[in-house]
Every structure is written in C-alpha cells, then in structure tokens.
Amino acid sequence: MHQNLLTTGQMTRQDLDDIIALSARLKKERGKHTEKPLAEKSIGMIFSKSSTRTRVSFEVGIRELGGSSIYLDQSQLQVGRGESLADTARVLSRYLHAVIIRTYEHEDLVEFAKHSHIPVINALTNDYHPCQVLTDLFTIYEYSETFKDVKLTYIGDGASNMANSLILAAKLAGLKLTISSPEQYQPDQELLEENFGKDNHVWQVAPQKAVEGAEFIYTDVWVSMGFEDEKSDRKKLLQPYQLNMKLLDLAAANARIMHCLPAHRGEEITDEVMDCPKSIVFDQAENRLHVQKAILTLMLGNKN
To answer: Which of 106, 132, 136, 292 is an active site residue?
Structure first.
C-alpha cells in the first residue's frame, strides 16, 4: 500500500484485494491469533471531530495488534494555539509510528501528510472517509462474494464525504454506482467525470428510479458535522430521499440496507427499514474493526 491513506484514490485493486482477504482472516481469527504486527509501535490519534465507532474501533484494533494508541484532542495541542501543521507533523514523526487524523478540512490532512515522515491515515474529513468506504466494500463482498455487476445505490446528500468516497470506491472495485440526490446536493461533477467519464449516468435525481434493481441501498445523515447551520434547509430538501419501506419495495428483492452511522432515525431512514431483516448496518459497524486492523497491518506491520 501507499505510505498514507488519505483517500482510496491512492489505492490499487491489489491493495483492495489484500485488505479484503486480510480483513476476512482477522475477523475469523479474532481472539485466537497470536500475531502482534504493531508490537512496540505507538499510534497517535488526532481528533477534532467527535467519534464513537472510529475512535473505539481504532483503539481496540491497535491494542489487539499489539500496539499502543495515544488519543490527542486537537483543541488541546499547540496547533490549536498557532503552531503550524507542518511543524506539528515534523515533531510527531519523531515520537510516533503513525498518525490517524479525524478533522474538518481535507486540505489540512494533506498538509500534515506532506510534512510527516510516518504514515498518515484519514479517519474522516469533510471530503472523504476512506476507512468507512473500505469497510463498506468489505461488507458488500461478504454478502456478494464479488463486485462484478453489483449495483449499489446511495440516497441523500450527494455532495457529502461518503458520496465522494463511494465514487472513488466504486471505480476501484468495479461496482455499478448510482447516487440519488436533489440538484442542490448533487455529486461533485469533476470527481464523477474523472472516475466515470463525461457520459456517466451515476447521478439520478429521482430516488424511486435510482433504487430499481439495487442490491445494496446506502444512506447517511442529512446534516453532517460542520453543516449544522444548514439543518433546516437540508431536512426540507432531502425529505423525499428518506429510506423507507415504500422506497425499499422498489429495489431488488434481495436488497441489503447500509448506513455508516450514526443514524438519525425518522429522518434519512425509518425504524422499520433500519431494523428489518435486510439491514446489514451493524455488520458494517463491526467490520470497521476488522478492516482497520487490516489497514494498520498492511501499512505498518507484516503481511504474514
């Protein structure tokens, strides 16, 4: 793999295959394997956004791999008092073996990685969420055992970090991706063109049309962290994109429901859909642990 994981756009298909294979093995052998690929290694976790799944899964994963994690609240670092990202990266590179960053501006992550001499992993920015989307691919593969001809439909905010990440991931894996959103929250057209060409048909305004034949239907919160001031407008514009049973009935009979969590039940997804037998939402949540352990092992440890 590349030294850093900032987006899946840096990855090759072989990287993806390696992550899927190792994630499956680590999941199967959890609690039984004795390998400690992160032994004697310290991993810093710099978070400026709140977190449940990301923080817990990374801390548990690092511990299970034999390493030590150090949680660093960005507001309590000197960077919060004016020290440059470049200097912070240079200093932390002398202490740690890798840094996991969860922040707002993707450009800040890129700037940090530019001056870091150790691996940098993106644990979420406003633009991308590679650890989540790699987990999504692993989860899809668990159920389909292939990516070929698999149709994934994402419904909601098409300009979100998950929509951006799914565009890159679909290109990497060879999935058939459809994104359904209102025009005000349409996907990044430049990103779509770069990955699917000018004549792509990835974006679909009508959610009813978008879910036709979909084997996996994915949604996310309408108001992501950092966009709270747009809450009223977002809820009004995205209400027609709620994932409910009426919409689910238009998808493939074997369709599975995905959500990266946290879910705002009654907004982007109903309780009935979230808790139905077709939901694999909590499989996704569990798989964050296994996939991130695979990422850490491939980036910092050995592959055996």
So the answer is: 132
Task: Verify whether residue 102 is a known catalytic residue.
Answer: yes
Q: How many other CB atoms are there within 10 angstroms of residue 235's CB atom?
A: 14
Measure the CA angle with vertex 133, ends 129 and 139; round to 5°: 150
Mean pLDDT of 231-255: 96
For residues 21-47, give the mean pLDDT: 95
Name the nearest CA neighbour of 266 among 294, 244, 233: 244
Of these residues, 55, 106, 129, 234, which one is catalytic? 129
* 220 given a catalytic annotation: yes
Q: Which among 260, 284, 290, 292 is annotated as catalytic?
A: 260
Distance, in Å, from the CA atom of 94 to the CA atom of 238, rounded to the nearest integer, reads: 46
184 is annotated as an active-site residue? no
Q: What's the pLDDT score for residue 228?
A: 84
Q: How far apart are CA 120 and CA 106, in angstroms?
A: 13
Which of 55, 220, 256, 290 does the annotation list as catalytic?
220
CB 269 within 8 A of CB 255: no
Residue 260 appears among annotated catalytic residues: yes
Whole-angstrom Cα Rg for the chain: 19
Residue 304 has what pLDDT?
Answer: 39
DSSP characters over 110-123:
HHHHHH-SS-EEES
The active-site residue, picked from 55, 102, 256, 259, is 102
Within the chain, where are the H helices? Answer: 13-28, 53-64, 85-95, 106-115, 130-144, 161-173, 189-196, 207-210, 231-238, 245-248, 271-274, 281-300
Predicted TM-score of the model (pTM):
0.96
For 125: left if phi > 0, alpha if psi spans -120 to 50, otherwise beta; the answer is beta
Asked if 13 is an active-site residue, the reply is no
Structure-token match 């499956």, residue found: 24
Residue 292 is a catalytic residue = no
- β-pairing, 68-73 vs 216-219, is unpaired
* Whole-number average pLDDT of the chain: 95
